[in-house]
Inverse folding.
């Protein structure tokens, strides 16, 4: 018969004895041990939190306050004392939103909106772009400004964008402000999506706060299915591929063969998808357990038949935010603006300078610059509506450039955004010459090759996104360009990395499974008893613990 002592001995044997210092570490910030969804610590804390949450489900402000306190603790465990930055930002934006709502004069409302936007972007700019600007200035003007020792708070870009959307929607009179600061802070700090999205819109989330908390059996089924899938994506696939292959190749690409560089590029494509969509799935699932519905953030993006389709499927909450608050604000497809013309012009001018500076070593950069400018120009010059297409393409290009810069301060992120902006412009002119028939779906071959071409373009762009700098990205591309057909060498490499390549294959097969198959799996899961679901979840967490490599790996999008 199993005794308490035997259970205790098993626990100590597998997890070690719990000490006072260990308990203290659960509640104190440690830069090397952030509180992540895929850790046993989060599972334990969340179970305790959720147990109390169940007793507060019929309350309102007490429940909101309780979740806020846990959310601030969650953020403290991710960024330490910088959780105060979130509080400061929320106080300022809440105060300005109240002023804007009560003000009747358009000019004054716009003045306070501009103040809010400047303050938010200045805060984001200092923590994320200060050193990038210093390095750029020093390189261009031979300056000697010292770099700042700046800590980047986790997820600052996400909650900044979320806060900005709230105040902009009030300015546009799309929503009314919250009744008090507690409700607003709940919206901004809601922990499931606080540090890596999905970016929640106030008009979608705020109405849910005031609704009666109603958690159905189907909600629990959906939540557990998402959490289990997200854990497998993140920990079993993404972490293993990253630590055992992708990181090594991208850290020193010249130390690896062309084939390994190519496979690392494919590996990163599935790694970042499993990492980010895995986090989003867990965030949506956890929020669902709390009675809140967050927007879907990914819809099998590598099944996209065009780059336009890709951005309807990848990081949907960000692409929607950029469209509604940046693209439309600078003119959309109707009007040109100074900002809309400025950023593409600066980019192409910089690209041309780069090509000219490299001319003595190689003419290729100058050719790349010239061809890029020509392609972008032809994307609107060949259009039957030149003026409108010009405006649209410049505004699209600006949106993607700034979207790239949002992801990180570096030339490689700017190039990543520019490539997507250029591809969107090319696709628009392509669709003008070869419009799709609305009443007829494309044949299998057309769809197949469209997916293959789009996927490989996206993978190519991911090289810039993953590389630590622009030069490293060029090294990876150059190595892949020297690929030759050597089946024996490829076989040796595949056997050497059989576990990594096996998980990559598993990830891609999972991603490309027909939707009917996924729905069938979901239907079977729904019919299993709740106890079995809980056992499955526990088993997955055990797999997470058993397969942990080099500690818990932070989610890729935490750095943004």
């Amino acid at each position: 018969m199993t005794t308490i002592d035997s259970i205790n001995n098993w626990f100590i044997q597998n997890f070690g004895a719990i000490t006072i210092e260990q308990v203290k570490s659960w509640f104190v910030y440690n830069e090397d041990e952030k509180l992540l969804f895929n850790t046993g610590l989060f599972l334990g804390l969340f179970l305790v939190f959720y147990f109390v949450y169940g007793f507060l489900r019929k309350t309102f402000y007490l429940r909101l306050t309780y979740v806020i306190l846990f959310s601030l603790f969650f953020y403290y465990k991710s960024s330490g004392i910088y959780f105060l930055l979130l509080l400061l930002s929320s106080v300022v934006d809440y105060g300005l939103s109240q002023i804007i709502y009560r003000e009747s004069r358009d000019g004054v409302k716009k003045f306070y909106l501009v103040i809010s936007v400047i303050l938010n972007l200045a805060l984001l700019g200092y923590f994320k772009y200060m050193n990038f600007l210093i390095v750029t200035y020093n390189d261009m003007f031979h300056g000697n400004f010292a770099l700042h020792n700046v800590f980047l708070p986790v997820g600052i870009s996400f909650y900044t964008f979320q806060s900005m959307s709230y105040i902009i929607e009030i300015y546009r009179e799309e929503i009314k402000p919250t009744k008090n600061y507690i409700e607003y802070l709940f919206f901004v700090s809601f922990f499931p999506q606080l540090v890596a999205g999905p970016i929640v819109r106030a008009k979608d989330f705020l109405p849910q706060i005031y609704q009666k908390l109603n958690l159905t059996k189907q909600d629990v089924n959906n939540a557990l299915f998402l959490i289990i899938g997200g854990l497998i994506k993140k920990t079993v696939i993404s972490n293993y591929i990253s630590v055992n292959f992708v990181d090594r190749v991208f850290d020193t690409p010249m130390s690896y063969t062309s084939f390994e560089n190519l496979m690392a590029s494919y590996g990163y494509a599935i790694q970042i998808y499993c990492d980010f969509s895995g986090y989003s799935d867990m965030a949506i699932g956890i929020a669902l357990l709390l009675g809140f519905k967050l927007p879907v953030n990914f819809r099998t993006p590598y099944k996209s038949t065009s780059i336009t389709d890709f951005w309807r499927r990848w990081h949907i909450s960000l692409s929607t935010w950029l469209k509604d608050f940046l693209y439309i604000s600078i003119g959309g497809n109707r009007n040109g603006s100074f900002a809309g013309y400025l950023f593409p012009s600066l980019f192409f001018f910089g690209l041309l300078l780069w090509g000219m500076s490299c001319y003595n070593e190689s003419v290729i950069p100058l050719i790349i610059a010239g061809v890029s400018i020509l392609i972008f120009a032809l994307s609107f010059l060949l259009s039957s509506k030149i003026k409108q297409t010009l405006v649209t393409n410049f505004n699209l290009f600006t949106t993607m450039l700034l979207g790239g810069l949002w992801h990180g301060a570096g030339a490689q992120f700017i190039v990543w955004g520019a490539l997507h902006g250029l591809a969107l412009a090319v696709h628009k002119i392509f669709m003008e010459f070869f419009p799709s028939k609305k009443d007829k779906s494309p044949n299998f071959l057309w769809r197949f090759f469209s997916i293959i071409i789009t996927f490989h373009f996206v993978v190519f762009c991911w090289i810039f996104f993953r590389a630590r700098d622009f030069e490293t990205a060029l090294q990876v591309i150059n190595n892949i360009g020297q690929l030759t057909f050597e089946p024996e060498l490829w076989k040796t490499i595949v056997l050497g990395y059989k576990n990594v390549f096996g998980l990559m294959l598993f990830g891609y097969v999972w991603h490309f499974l027909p939707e009917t198959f996924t729905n069938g799996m979901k239907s079977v899961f729904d019919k299993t008893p709740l106890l079995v679901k809980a056992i499955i979840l526990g088993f997955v967490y055990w797999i997470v613990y058993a397969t942990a490599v080099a500690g818990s790996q932070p989610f890729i999008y935490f750095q943004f």
Notes: Residues 138 and 144 are 6 Å apart (CA to CA). The two ends are 52 Å apart (CA to CA).
